[in-house]
């Protein structure tokens, strides 16, 4: 009788952008391990290519007993956002967690005195403008869900970078994009707090992925010399576990919090 009055809560659904590789892949797998069904976005999806990309992540997620819906598309293109969210709603009818992770580095690192408008616009479009408007769209959807059932928590997590407040004159457009993302996380957190949607910023340091592959040898040497107090590269699962902890609600009374996952790079040292 009681069961009929209180239907079981639906499984929570996470939308992870840039989920095909690196940090986004680590986040998707860790969230699946924590009971989330996953909508995974990346620039493309080839179901026949099961050894890599979104199809490989899909297999890993499904092996953990979670459902996976691929949502290929370019997060920088605002006219694709409606379709991307529609993938989630068609399959799961809800989004409980958005992880805005997709991002790019400049194609060529150039000194701040040589930064081109093309590179600036590209990096800002993918890393800031796209995530801002996608978060806006998903937040509106979450508001509808929370209005129906306020006991089902919703959250948005922005994957920024230590570059949000660290200077790299060789890729200023990346630093600017992540500083902008940091501020949007703060303002969304402020605005959405009264609605019951928590917003967090996760700042990875040096994480071993395709993005950092071109500089891995250079940073291996710096890490060996003590650049990072914890003396190792970060791994995608380090970020995935931090995101899962936020998603579980362990920091429920801490909206707007910045979680740095950098092995202590944030510690000012003498
Ligand atoms: P990565 O290995 O290069 O993977 C990037 C992911 O984002 C890929 O799945 C890629 O899709 C996707 N992506 C790129 N542009 C996209 C777009 N326009 N629309 C949709 N998806 C797009 O990068 P990562 O190292 O995992 O970085 C993930 C995030 O963490 C980025 O925001 C990055 O700035 C941030 N971060 C990384 C580090 C680090 O040390 N690695 C440190 C701090 C912050 P495809 O697979 O289809 O190309």
UniProtKB/TrEMBL annotation:
Q: What is this protein called?
A: 3-ketoacyl-ACP reductase
Give yes or no: UniProt keyword Transmembrane: no
A single GO molecular-function term is: quinone binding
Keywords of the record, alphabetical order, are: Oxidoreductase
Q: NCBIfam families from the entry?
A: PRK12745.1 (NF009386)
Q: Which protein family is named in the record?
A: Belongs to the short-chain dehydrogenases/reductases (SDR) family.
KW Heme (keyword) present = no
Q: What is the lineage of its organism?
A: Bacteria, Candidatus Eiseniibacteriota
Protein origin, superkingdom: Bacteria
| Gene Ontology biological-process entries | fatty acid biosynthetic process
């Amino acid at each position: 009788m009681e069961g009929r009055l209180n239907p079981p809560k639906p499984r929570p659904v996470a939308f992870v952008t840039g989920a095909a590789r690196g940090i986004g892949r680590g986040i998707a797998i860790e969230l699946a391990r924590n009971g989330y069904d996953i909508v995974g976005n990346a620039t493309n999806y080839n179901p026949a290519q099961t050894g890599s990309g979104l199809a490989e992540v899909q297999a890993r997620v499904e092996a953990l007993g979670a459902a996976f819906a691929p949502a290929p598309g370019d997060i920088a293109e605002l006219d694709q956002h409606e379709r991307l969210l529609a993938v989630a709603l068609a399959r799961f009818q809800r989004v409980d967690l958005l992880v805005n992770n997709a991002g790019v580095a400049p194609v060529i690192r150039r000194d701040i005195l040589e930064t081109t408008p093309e590179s600036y616009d590209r990096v800002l479009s993918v890393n800031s403008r796209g995530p801002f408007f996608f978060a806006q769209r998903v937040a509106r959807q979450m508001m509808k869900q929370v209005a129906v059932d306020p006991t089902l928590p919703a959250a948005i997590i922005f994957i920024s970078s230590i570059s949000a407040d660290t200077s790299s004159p060789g890729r200023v457009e990346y630093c600017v994009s992540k500083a902008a993302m940091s501020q949007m996380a703060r303002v969304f957190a402020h605005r959405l707090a009264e609605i019951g949607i928590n917003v967090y910023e996760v700042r990875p340091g040096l994480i071993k992925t395709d993005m950092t592959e071109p500089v891995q040898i250079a940073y291996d040497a710096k890490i060996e010399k003590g650049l990072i107090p914890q003396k190792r590269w970060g791994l995608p699962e380090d970020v995935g576990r931090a995101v899962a902890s936020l998603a579980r609600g362990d920091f429920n009374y801490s909206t707007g919090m910045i979680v740095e996952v950098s092995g202590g790079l944030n510690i000012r040292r003498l």
